[in-house]
Amino acid sequence: MKNCRATLFFTTVSFFLMTGFYSIQAQENETTIDKKYSRQISKLAKNKKIQKAFETIRALEPETHNDLIELTEIPAPQFKEQTRANAFAQKLREAQIDSLWIDAEGNVIGLLKGTERNKVVALNAHLDTVFPEETDVKVRISNDTLYAPGIGDDTRGLAMLLTVLKTLNKTQIRPKDDLLFVATVGEEGLGDLRGVKALFGPTGPKIDAWVSIDGGELGRVNNKALGSFRYKITYEGPGGHSWGAFGLVNPHHALGTAIDRFVTAADNYTSSGPKTSYNVGVIEGGTSINSVPFSSSMLVDIRSVEPTRLDDMEQLLKTATEEALTLQNSRKRRGPELQLRFEKIGNRPSGELATTLPLIQRAMAATQFFGKTPLLTRGSTDANIPISLGIPAVTVGRGGTGGKAHSLDEWWYNDKGYEAIQFVLLLVLAQTGI
Q: In the predicted model, what is the mean pLDDT of the chain?
């Protein structure tokens, strides 16, 4: 089964396991909740043990607050999450997880054994942030608002996982199915979902349902995965003096042509059809104003709700970069030809799960139970991978109120943040049973 899942992941065939892809627009705001799921959530929430758990979550607010600050103040840039991973693992041990391990990719995985153990449900938040290692991540508190890079995205999710585990153990609630507490690496940027890809690869554990916590207020129900391809395009030449070596191929000139041709073609292509975006985000190269550069590169991000459009955009990019290479080489007056390196550095699959799936229905019903209107969204999160494989998965909000994610001024305010933890507990236990 694992090998099958891994194979599906790397093919567009997997996408067609999803129900309703061709009715994306129709389902975009489809929040109809089957009454049986509303009744299930309401009945579970009235259970005396669950009521006690809700009280426990509120009583644990000071610990949740401390966990959030302690973890936020541990730098965790992409590919350097180990220190935070070790700290989070230690907190899981202290919260009395049944078993714990850090896999080869760096993911922290804790297992709470179920009473029947027929299936496995994973509760997830990601360890990494978008900030470099030298970033000041000290938490500042002003008028009860917490300010720090990464405070909401996604350290708040990590703190919520710990509180859910503590609550289950303090109230002696045991799920029927196994429950995995998973802190993943590589969710952000060029991390390319490497942590969750490993989990659903051939050596990963069996996972039957997936719940991610990642940004947004209580009410977010992300059942649609926004796919993306990312590239590093590099032109390389001999380089030389702008006067003395004039006539050599110029990587910058080629890059400029490539950008112009790609943007022209991409603008035309994306003007109709399912939403697709493109962006040249980083340009690098050159040593001085009077030097012919020896290298020029750019990072390109392409996103679409439909996998085939990503393939089409890739072809437009390849054509533009190759035409620019040919043109620049035709203009050389001396020296060797320009070389092109076309590297695909990111691949996040698209996908969509039908709103009729039990997990999505339970997420919407639980949202409604807390007095919120479910908001179905599309995003790029760890849930992209299970969604693309047709495995029930959802990303939900971390609650409270926050803003300026991915900035040095990121902030989060605990406006009934405990409700989001109660919501996650209710959703997970509705999925596992008790």
A: 93
8 A C-beta contact, residue 122 and residue 207: yes
By residue count, the chain amounts to 434
**Helices marked H in 209-357:** 251-270, 307-330
- Looking at 274-381, list the stretches that DSSP marks H as alpha helix, in order from N- to C-terminal side: 307-330, 358-369
C-alpha 146/C-alpha 343 separation (Å) is 39
3-state secondary structure of 265: helix
Regarding pTM above 0.85, the answer is yes
Strands 401-403 and 411-413, how do they pair?
Answer: antiparallel
pLDDT at 215: 85
Asked if the peptide bond before residue 154 counts as cis, ω within 30 degrees of 0, the response is: yes
Whether residue 2 has pLDDT greater than 50:
no
Q: Are the beta carbons of 366 and 426 closer than 8 angstroms?
A: yes
CA–CA distances in Å: residue 125 to residues 149, 155, 192, 204? 16, 8, 15, 17
Residue 289, token pair as written in the block = 């104003």
CA dihedral 239, 243, 249, 255 (to 10 degrees): 80
> Which residue has better confidence, 383 or 11?
383
d(CA 357, CA 196): 22
- Distance, in Å, from the CA atom of 280 to the CA atom of 31, rounded to the nearest integer, reads 36
Report in angstroms the alpha-carbon separations of 217 from 150, 256, 372, 376, 434: 16, 41, 10, 12, 27
Q: What are phi and psi of 22, to 5 degrees?
A: -80, 5
pLDDT at 189 over 60: yes
Crossing angle of helices 61-72/48-59, nearest 10°? Answer: 50
Domains, the chain, with CATH or none: 2-225+350-432 (3.40.630.10), 227-348 (3.30.70.360)
Q: Are 226 and 352 a contacting pair, CB within 8 Å? A: no
Q: What is the largest CA-CA distance in the chain?
A: 84
Give how far Cα 268 sits from Cα of 300, 317, 414, Å: 17, 13, 45
Among residues 430, 418, 404, 433, the alpha carbon closest in space to that of 218 is found at 418
CA distance 341 to 337: 13
Question: Which H or E run contains 178?
Answer: strand 178-184
Closest CA relative to residue 108, chosen from 56, 143, 138, 71 = 71
Is pLDDT above 50 for 225?
Answer: yes
Rounded Cα gap, residues 361 and 409, in angstroms = 35
